[in-house]
Amino acid sequence: MSEGKWIAGKARAAGGSRNFKLWIPAAPEDARAWPLLMLLHGCTHDGAHMAEISGMNEVAAFHRFLVVYPEQSLCANLLKCWNWFRPEHQSRDAGEPSILAAIVAQIRSTYSVDPDRLYVAGVSAGGAMASILAATYPDVFAGVAVFAGAEFKAATSTSEGFAAMKHGGPDPARQGQIAFEVMHGGFARTERRRMPVIVFHGTADKKVNWINADQTIAQWEKTNSCLAAEDGNIGFLLTEKVSDGKVSDGYAYKKYSYLESDSHLLMEKWLVEGLGHAWSGSPKPRKYGDPKGPNASAEIWRFFCESAKHPTASSLLQKWSEASQ
């Protein structure tokens, strides 16, 4: 078990209230502001399940960051899915996005949190909601991880939600433009002008078609292109680099890295061959966790640090691997 403690909380906003669980590693000797990761569970789960499936607390203990696990209520959705497919939960200062932003605000009012190192990640319905949060609150979240999720506003009804899961959502270029327009509400409060994005998906996922991974990257490429143009970078262009890998006694995978002209990492896409609708690199075999894939939790945190040009980013994964052996 990782050294740390759980804190239970509840936050309220215009869209209602939700419980959350905050995991805090053992306090470092030096006083400093904590990085914070919000991790959104999938349908039927809660915060404890998400922590067990992802093993994110172990990564947080090693790299010293807070993890908050918001919890969907049965009253809001009988399957405890985040309502990413309903219009009333796709806007700033309304619905579930307002509640999730309130959770962050509540934690920041109690703990010293680094505002430049605050991220959101999610799996399945949580992944689709993470895309929404990145667009509606770009002043809050400095990066997003979408695992088996969907592009921004991939659906606006239940039937469209199921269709997106099976066949993908609308034209990513159009959704990227819409996300760009939505982000202006948050950019009045921040100087950020790009959104780092990392996507994970299994090629054997039978619940959410992995075309959604391609669409999520394409949507955010369009959004980031619009943001760059508004910032005066008319020649914005990403270079794609592809690398192959394989987990020992596990799955092969392809990693797509998308770099800006100065070689700055902006986006990544991981396609894991043979992985179903499960978290990649889970500590133990579970219904929604598969240890045979690359460690998604470690890679997500490495990406957030590297895309932010954090000075220790290049050695994070190596240190984690050495410590885990």
Walkthrough of the structure:
- The chain has 9 helices and 12 strands.
- With 325 residues, it is α/β, with parallel strands linked by helices.
- The protein has a 10-stranded mixed sheet with strand order 1-2-4-3-5-6-7-10-9-8, with helices on both faces.
- Residues 311-315 have low confidence and may be disordered.
Structure summarized in a few sentences:
The protein is of the alpha/beta class.
Cα shape: globular
- State the end-to-end CA separation: 15 Å
Q: Helix- and strand-based class?
A: alpha/beta
Report the sheet with the most strands, covering strand number, pairing sense and barrel closure. Answer: 10 strands, mixed
Strand order in space, largest sheet? 1-2-4-3-5-6-7-10-9-8
- Percent range for β-strand residues: 25-35%
Question: Which stretches are low in confidence, meaning pLDDT under 50 for 5 or more residues running?
Answer: 311-315
- The chain-level mean pLDDT equals 92
Approximately how much helix is present in the residues?
Answer: 25-40%
The H/E string reads EEEHHEHEHEHHEHEEEEEHH
Please tally the β strands and state the result: 12
Write the layout of secondary structure elements.
Blueprint: E1 4-13, E2 16-25, E3 34-40, H1 47-54, H2 56-63, E4 66-71, H3 95-110, E5 113-123, H4 125-136, E6 144-147, H5 158-167, H6 172-187, E7 197-202, H7 211-230, E8 239-246, E9 252-259, E10 265-272, E11 279-280, E12 289-290, H8 296-307, H9 313-324
Helix pairs in contact: 4-6, 6-7, 8-9
Task: List descriptors.
12 strands; alpha/beta; ten-stranded mixed β-sheet; two-stranded parallel sheet; 325 residues
